[in-house]
Amino acid sequence: MFHCVYRASTALYRTRRIPSARYFHRVTADFSNYDLKGNLITEKVPVIVGNPGETYVLIDPEVGSALRAAASQLQVSAPAASIQERYKLTFFHDSRHFGFESSSYPRLYVPRYIPGRPESSVSPATLFLDGKMHEIVLDGTADGNIYSSFGYGLSVFNIDIAHFAHNASATARNLEHVLDQLKDM
């Protein structure tokens, strides 16, 4: 029911490998939205979540596009530098759904607990619209610790998944023209 992506870290002065992994669990979420006639419908959609305690959800591009269309209609602000790449969402911990406001649609109900700030029942999130799977990540979380071994000690780097996703998609866009030139050679 789940897949695992292994990341092996190697020490410069050791031959022993320290494996680490990020698990991707496929679950079914409920996506509620209005159809073309204005009727509210709920459909089951596949999503990918991490282990308990991780704060990201990978969604189908169709769901991401529906959220983007709703953001445009609701005039939800997006960061000025990347209007077409990402949008602000809110995660409502009580009902376990992503949306724009507590009473608005579309909504993506996630069947798994996603940790947030203890003092609040809502958390800001960002929808990233790049790649084969779109990502929703809670803002300001230290999800995605990467452990890498250097020398005789273990160094820990905390990478904000939202920041990483933005930089990864920006890199792909920046290199697109170079890759096109290489194809023509």
Describe this structure in words.
- The chain is an alpha+beta fold and 185 residues long.
- It has one domain.
- It is built from two helices and eleven strands.
- It has helices at 61-74, 161-183; strands at residues 2-10, 17-34, 40-49, 56-59, 86-92, 97-99, 107-109, 122-128, 134-138, 145-150, 153-158.
- The strands form two sheets. Strands 2-3-4-9-8-5-6-7 form an eight-stranded antiparallel barrel. A two-stranded antiparallel ribbon has the order 10-11.
- Strand 2 (17-34) and strand 3 form a beta hairpin.
Instruction: Write the element-wise H/E pattern from the N-terminal end onward.
Output: EEEEHEEEEEEEH
Q: How are strands sequenced across the largest beta sheet? A: 2-3-4-9-8-5-6-7
| Low-confidence runs of at least 5 consecutive residues | 6-19, 80-84, 143-160
| Helix content range | 10-25%
Overall structural class, as computed from helix and strand content, comes to alpha+beta
The percent range for strand residues is 35-45%
Give the distance, in angstroms, between the N- and C-terminal Cα atoms.
Answer: 43 Å
Rg measurement, Å: 19 Å
Largest sheet: 8 strands, antiparallel, barrel
Mean pLDDT: 73
Shape estimate: globular
User: How many helical stretches?
Assistant: 2
- What's the total number of strands? 11
